[in-house]
Amino acid sequence: MSVDIFPQLFPIDLEGKEWEGFISIQEFQFPIWISFSMDSPCISSFQHKKPKAENEKKRKLDHLQSNSTKKNSFELKSNEELNELLNGMSQSISNRLESCSSLSSFLMELKDILERRIAETKRRDFERDCGSEFYHRLRWEMDQMGWNTFKSIDSSLSQLEIQCQDAGNRTHSFTIQLSYRYPLEPPVIVADLPEPFQVKWDPSSSNLSNMLQQMEKTLGEYQSLWNQLRDLDENCWILEPEHPTYSSLSRRIALEQHRSIQVKLDPSRPYSIPEIQFLGPENSVASLRESFNKKLSNWNSKLTLRENLEKTIGIQFPSPKTTKREEFSQECGICYSYKLDNEGDQQIPDRVCAESKCGKPFHPHCLSEWLKSNPSCRQSFNTIFGECPYCSTPISIRI
Predict the structure, then answer these.
(1) Which one-letter DSSP state was computed for residue 296?
(2) Cβ neighbours for 320, distance < 8 A, ≥ 6 positions apart
């Protein structure tokens, strides 16, 4: 739906015939107005609390200009900047958009067209601004490094991707974005690392080979961190993140049903005591927290993080070799799903009823919405107090 693709685009009539607002593509934002014919498959029914006034629906859009993509089923207008971007493509754009069978497919197709045109314009502008010296130097540097070093190369040589392995046989990719003023301007490096990669650059002497050496040195500095995290990933049930990346410093480790711990490592001191949080019913995790605090002085930097946690907490973590993930990932007692996408925030059912005979888990969002809808519940500041939907045991949630 348009809310997901272009959040700033809204219908201005009840039938969904006319749409107006802004569309954002990369760093650009364009005003736009779209009108569909009544027999277009893109028209849907919409419910509005307050219908737009007739004169508002039919107001003249003098500030927008037509880009000539007008046929029987739709008309599209925007500003001069977008019209220039789509110049010369009216027929091909019309052909692609005419074939769409729904509003969502229409907007997705429009988004794809604009992204491609912006990328092509950037590439053309880059090639125009670059002189022959840029290409000669860059090709020479790439020859020195060996072309097999590069995983992908943009046709304009403005973006390169390097792939390399660290000492732990982990594969890493670095995306290098070059300005047409290279080497006077340093390249921009995009990489999946715990901390932003800052390249040290001297325009008079630095080159891609120097930069690759800096990358390899940086990977070496994170080996202890990644080794610790790999040990957790291979020997524990990790509830979150489900698919950890090299930049992920946190792990949520399952202990048993409704009990888990969240740890966050310091990338510069991966063997030191991490940030730790016990998650679950307070009467269930209190003893674990007490044991951890008492034995914290016995923390041994020569042991792995997992071994230290097991010794200080006083339990052995469940292993994927002897247990199943389903034993620790119960569905929410309200929405009956495990994962919940709440406005881009992935939640799992980690708010648990304190009654041991019940022990139903809930997503924080689901529980707060449930309690808000119950007139017997009360709110104090940012906390809602109520009862478990299953056993009526007192339960509360911060909002």
Answers:
(1) G
(2) 234, 235, 236, 237
